[in-house]
Write a structure and sequence with these properties.
The chain is mostly helical. It has helices at about 10-25, 40-50, 60, 80-90, 100-125, 130-145, 150-155, 160-180, 185-205, 205-220, 230-255, 270-280, 285-295, 330-335, 335-350, 360-375, 390-400, 405-410, 410-435, 440-450; strands spanning about 65-70, 70-75, 300, 310, 315, 325. Strand 3 (about 300) and strand 4 (about 310) form a beta hairpin. The termini are far apart.
Length: about 450
């Protein structure tokens, strides 16, 4: 029997995964207030904002500083700094040590947003409630344990904290965009307001996550009906417009342009020279980056825990990428095959006209532009793979909405998710314990004790 219009109950699995992610983020619950690499930079930025300037303490940003007129500034998005303001006011002793709490909150937003999108996709599919729950639970486990979320929560240095907030808020904005297609009246106004706030937050966390939603907002505006049109337009455009205006103003105040960064002021001469010669983004890099993020390269098996070993690998294209190596330690084909298979089917549906109309095509194109942007970037890193996930998740949702195909492939999807969880979890732990130089020493020591290993010298 099919049970139409009933969404799966994902609360139990969500609570279990939230507890697991908390344990993972805080290294067994013992390391909550930890000074992550450059984590105090956000606290310093918050203090300077409250003083009315855009500078930052040089000792807080150190090797990532931009020196403008003798003053240190940062190119990182300001959103995590805004979070520090009330936290440091409430608990001043936590200054410089909020990264794990901040990152975990972002992770929960990402998890809840993904759960909401899965519920929307499975609600009207002609599947029994039991299979909706089974597929929904499996997808939730896959997202939490077989996506970049695990890496981002395992290392919450300044680099990953910015990415995890951009990732989380972009998924929240995507959820509200999808929800807006199914609501009306006051609920629609609240949904558009949620989209606007989350899209603006994503833009202020990491611009590449927020930029696609500047394109998606006009698509949503086209669907607004005459009833409460002014109210809905205001809900959709005002918060996002304010975030965009602040982003442009902050960029100009920091560097004299509206791009958010200016490598003329970068303290690292090697990066500065490379960017001047070859650019931050270059379309020639796309096929090479794609080949690295989606390679067939397998992690090596070892008898010692965590059993799967990964490392940087040689990737020397001196006129394309700054480093002669890649930090993409595991291909998406191995850490997320469940998502890749579903996304490919969803893309086929969209191309053939079975995946939706103008809205779905517009969203897909905007998110695909984000993918092309990060594939043209001058560095290769596992955390950058998070930029590919909004598009892959959206295409995967189109696959799930076709309940018959999802039902026929149900055993395959659950099996792929199980394999993905094992490979991604073990390789991520291997990377954090052995090779990620930004992991604090006490965290690496705790992991080695848990695995019963001798720390690597």
């Amino acid at each position: 029997m099919t049970e139409e219009n009933r969404a799966p109950n994902l609360l139990p699995i969500g609570l279990v995964l939230a507890a697991l992610l908390w344990i993972f983020t805080t290294t067994g619950g013992r390391q909550i207030f930890v000074n992550e690499i450059l984590g105090e930079a956000y606290d310093s930025q918050a203090e300077h904002f409250l003083r009315g300037d855009v500078d930052i303490d040089g000792g807080a940003i150190r090797h990532e500083a931009m020196i403008v007129n003798g003053k240190a500034r940062t190119y990182f998005g300001p959103f995590p700094a805004f979070l520090r303001m009330p936290l440091n006011y409430i608990y001043p002793s936590g200054r410089g040590k909020w990264s794990r709490i901040s990152g975990f909150c972002a992770g929960m937003i990402a998890l809840v947003s993904f759960a909401g999108m899965i519920r929307l996709a499975l609600r009207s599919t002609p599947l029994s409630l039991g299979w909706k729950n089974a597929l929904g639970d499996a997808c939730m486990a896959g997202f939490a344990l077989a996506s970049p979320l695990l890496l981002l929560l395992g290392n919450l240095s300044i680099y990953d904290e910015a990415v995890v907030w951009g990732f989380a808020l972009s998924l929240a904005a995507l959820f509200f965009a999808l929800r807006a297609q199914q609501t009306e009246g006051a609920a629609l106004t609240c949904t558009l307001l949620g989209f606007s706030f989350c899209a603006g937050g994503a833009l202020l966390s990491r611009a590449t996550f927020g930029a696609p939603f500047l394109l998606i907002a006009p698509i949503l505006a086209l669907g607004i009906r005459p009833q409460k049109r002014i109210t809905n337009f205001a809900a959709l455009l005002l918060p996002l417009g304010a975030a965009l205006a602040f982003y442009l103003w902050l960029s100009y105040a920091r560097f004299g342009n509206v791009l958010g960064v200016n490598f003329d002021y970068y303290i690292n001469p090697r990066d500065k020279a490379f960017v001047h010669a070859f650019g931050v983004f270059n379309l020639r890099r796309i096929p090479y980056s794609f080949a690295d993020y989606f390679s067939l390269r397998l992690p090596s098996f070892h008898r010692e825990p965590p059993f799967l070993k990964v490392d940087r690998h040689w990737f020397d294209y001196s006129s394309l990428f700054m480093n002669p190596f890649s930090e993409v330690y595991v291909s998406l084909l191995w850490c997320a095959p469940w998502l890749i298979v579903g996304a490919i089917i969803g893309i086929v549906y969209l191309v053939r006209g079975k995946g939706g109309g103008l809205f779905e095509r517009g969203v897909a194109m905007a998110l695909l532009a984000q993918c092309l942007c990060i594939l043209s970037f001058y560095g290769l890193n596992q955390r950058y793979a998070a930029e590919l996930y909004p598009f892959l998740i959206f295409a995967f949702l189109l696959f799930l909405r076709n309940g018959r195909t999802a039902f026929r492939l149900r055993y395959l999807m659950i099996g792929l998710i199980a394999v993905s969880v094992v490979i991604n979890s073990l390789t991520t732990i291997s990377w954090l314990v052995e090779f990620d130089s930004n992991v604090p020493a006490q965290t690496r020591t705790a992991w080695n004790e848990f695995l019963g290993r001798t720390p690597r010298r």
